[in-house]
């Protein structure tokens, strides 16, 4: 089980990632990873890298903010390139630093965001239960994760915005069935109400 402790939090907002080459993109990614590794933490802390993937507007930044800062921001900006947050929790009485990388869903940032699959222990694949097309695109995101992430990566399928059940376009059963067919963990969540936000990390 995971228990919340006080934690450091910082986001990398509005960084321009329109680099001219994959080499420059790699250098930028490496610089961000150094920043992440250098934040204050207890001694003997273990690290756990997680990435969020999915279409634009499914609520990935809001899930990140709710998990790390226990806040909901209804009018959240679009992620530009990547966004980063951390939270230190206890796993088996050991301090564990969760490093969550929120990748942009825009196709224009694809060449940059694919680099953040490297070294990921887990991936949270998010769709919006009120927008059918975001669920239809889950297969493409899953193929990316299976191709680009480590072979032992754990993948969680998350139907976000379950607080808007009156506007539901994807049933719970559809999400659950897709997850079972592809060997994924499945939960529905709400970044607004915080429903199952912490639980996502428990299962991972």
Automatic annotation (TrEMBL):
GO terms for cellular component: endomembrane system. It is found in: Endomembrane system. One of its GO terms (molecular function) is GTP binding. Coiled coil: none annotated. InterPro entries: P-loop_NTPase, Rab_GTPases_membrane_traffic, Small_GTP-bd, Small_GTPase. It comes from the Eukaryota. Keywords: Membrane, Nucleotide-binding. It holds the Pfam family Ras. Belongs to the small GTPase superfamily. Rab family. This is Uncharacterized protein. It comes from Eleusine coracana subsp. coracana.
